[in-house]
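Exercise 7.
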Amino acid sequence: MRHATTADEDDVVAVLCDAFFNDPVCRWIIPDHIRRRELLPSVFRAFARAAATDGRVYVAGDGLGALLAVNTPAHDDVHGSGDAASAQRLADRAEEFADRLLDCARLLAAHHPGNPAHLYVPLVAARSGHQGRGIGSALVASALADTAGAPVYLEATSRESLRLYRRLGFTRRGPELRLPDGPALFPAWWDPSSGCTG
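Solution. The predicted structure, written as tokens, is:
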């Protein structure tokens, strides 16, 4: 596990596209599998560049896994993180499915913790064929070890991934978040005082 460099961007995007192509949330945002294959690289490249600018990107091995982490300041006056302009720029990458990506972004932002400042992990992935081998766990453990005492927040996109995060010391934070006529996401929080880093 290591911090990615700009030279790793293509590998990071490829891992995310491979791992999330059949993810229930990605399928909800871009239901057409042909358009999903065409559009996901641009969407995930935008995610990766945002994480590289405002946080960090981790990569496992020779592009076998990737994790994006974004530093999120405290919001005393607003419950949530991110801004509408950033969400719109990201959604524009989804072209005709922009409204669906925006709906997802708004749902997540409405439930994102305002306090305290924390590290937000929007995406963790291992290449298909390498899942279930501990790559995701090792990536998350690396991120937890680097937090410098800050808590970590994420949304699991399945009950299976939520179980993985629980083994790493995360606890559920609030109710599941359900997309309109779509899948649920499961907010989870890791507190450094738990002493568990995977």
